[in-house]
Design a protein that fits this description.
Shape: globular
Radius of gyration: 18 Å
CATH superfamily of the largest domain: RNA polymerase sigma factor, region 2, helix turn helix motif
Number of strands: 0
Number of domains: 2
Strand content: under 5%
CATH architecture of the largest domain: Orthogonal Bundle
Order of helices and strands: HHHHHHHHHH
CATH class of the largest domain: Mainly Alpha
Length: 176
């Protein structure tokens, strides 16, 4: 006899199909590297598949559950790769080297990539939760252990920092 929670859950293949792009974009926004993102996303879905039977739909929706797995997996990735040097976008896009993404050939996306590259991982994670995951202040606060007002203030400071990055690094002219 199936548990009530188990009866409500879609099969894992459907979870994968519905959430792959979402999780991929969330991870890419944090790592800013296609191959690493592909590896990490593969690990995320492997972990999720392995533990899917223990997923409880009464505690969170499946996307939130996957985002928690993604967050922990990215943290593990950074722990393992802490000695890896930072790669500048200009190094990636020199003539003869393929762009990180075809999207980087678009000026706006290229500038967004540059802005994100000046942020810390925790700042990119925060923006990913806000914009990629479309989480509310309350949801972000729950994950980060903060009050909604503190999340709002962090968001305000982070947007100010992004504006300063644009001005300091001459990206404003590139965007106009």
């Amino acid at each position: 006899m199936k548990d009530r929670n188990e009866a409500k859950k879609p099969d894992f293949e459907q979870v994968y199909l519905d959430n792959y792009s979402y999780i991929y974009n969330y991870v890419y926004m944090r790592l800013l590297h296609r191959e690493n993102t592909e590896d990490v996303v593969s690990n995320i879905f492997t972990k999720a598949m392995t533990h899917y039977e223990s997923y409880d739909s009464t505690r969170s929706n499946v996307r939130t559950w996957l985002c928690n797995i993604a967050r922990n997996t990215v943290t593990d990735f950074y722990r393992l790769k802490s000695n890896q040097p930072h790669v500048d976008i200009d190094d990636i896009t020199e003539p003869g080297i393929d762009d990180e993404y075809d999207l980087l050939q678009d000026d706006i996306n290229r500038q967004l990539y540059r802005i994100l590259s000046y942020l810390t991982d925790s700042e990119r994670e925060f923006l990913a939760m806000r914009y990629q995951s479309d989480m509310s202040n309350e949801e972000i606060g729950k994950i980060l252990g903060l009050q909604a007002k503190a999340v709002s203030e962090r968001y305000r400071r982070l947007l100010k920092k992004c504006r300063e990055i644009v001005e300091t690094h001459g990206l404003k002219e590139d965007l106009e």
